[in-house]
Amino acid sequence: MVISENRIAYILRVIGVFIFVSTGLTGIILMVQTDSLWGGIPVIFSGFVSGMLFVGFSEVIKLLQKIYNQLAGPVETVTAAEKLSPEIAGEYSVSQSARNEITEFFNSKGQKVSDIKATSKEDFYLVVVDGDELMVELGGFKPIVRKK
Question: In angstroms, how far is CA 113 from the centroid of its own chain?
């Protein structure tokens, strides 16, 4: 999903600006009350450093969001049914660990796996169990059987 503005970056920037303003005013008030520059300079300096940290982190998040947006490409609208559709192609293969995990899962239930095919969606497999085709999702603690 392409996001134009990151809320976290905006919030961090607002916090940084608030720190600038509040410590600046506090430093000026301390200078006036103590009739000395040294009463408020440490407050202003520490506020500047703290505010810059927040503004800096907000810039880092904005830059990371821009990189993500460039890598994500255009926004595509996909329905829930299309996400789980078993698009099977020759370029997708089932790893041995995935094959073992699926087989062990159904063997523990007393069912026999005939065939396992990979889909274009990561961690989704089309599994033939006792003659029935099932959509199985891996990636969690145990396989999840989804409706086809």
Answer: 34
Q: Label residue 39 exposed, middle or buried (CB < 10 Å: 0-12, 13-18, 19+).
A: middle
Phi, psi dihedrals of residue 74, rounded to the nearest 5°: -70, 155
Q: Helices (H) and strands (E) in the chain — how many of each?
A: 4, 4
How large is the average pLDDT for residues 86-111? 79
- Domain extents in the chain: 7-72, 82-146
User: Per-residue confidence at 85, pLDDT binned at 50, 70, 90?
Assistant: low
- For the whole model, what pTM was predicted? 0.47
Examine the pLDDT at 89 and tell me if it is beyond 80.
no
CB pairs under 8 A, 24+ apart, for 38-42?
none
| Three-state SS sequence of 97-121 | HHHHHHHHHHHHCCCCEEEEEECCC
Q: Are 92 and 19 in contact (CB under 8 A)?
A: no
